[in-house]
Amino acid sequence: MSSQNTVTEYQFNFSVNGPQGESDGGFILTSLAGVTDTIALGIATAFNSQPWPTGVTNPMTVTKQDKVFTVYTTNLTAKPPSFT
Question: How far, rounded to the nearest angstrom, does the alpha carbon of residue 78 sit from its chain's CA centroid?
């Protein structure tokens, strides 16, 4: 039997720009790990509030995505085997 599941994904992206060049990075956290809108926005705000050295910029953005997906079970005794 199939079931519908939902997970919220928060994608964090940042780019450190300074005299030596640019370096990009990012990471993903999800509601499955207990992350909420408040936590995600707090992380980005705290990151952007850091006192970076003179001449260095380091903006972070966060994107929120709600994903709905279907999980299927298998019936391996059916002829032919199937997902339900």
Answer: 38
Name every residue whose Cβ is closer than 8 Å to that of residue 7 and which is 6 or more positions away in sequence: 30, 31, 32, 66, 67, 69
Of the candidates 81, 80, 64, the one whose C-alpha atom is nearest the C-alpha of residue 72 is: 81
| Nearest alpha-carbon partner for 13 in 28, 3, 2, 30 | 28
CA pair distance 34, 47, nearest whole angstrom: 19
Kindly report whether the global pTM for this prediction surpasses the value 0.85: no
Q: What is the pLDDT of residues 20-69, one digit of tens each?
A: 888 889 999 999 999 999 999 999 999 999 888 888 888 899 999 999 99
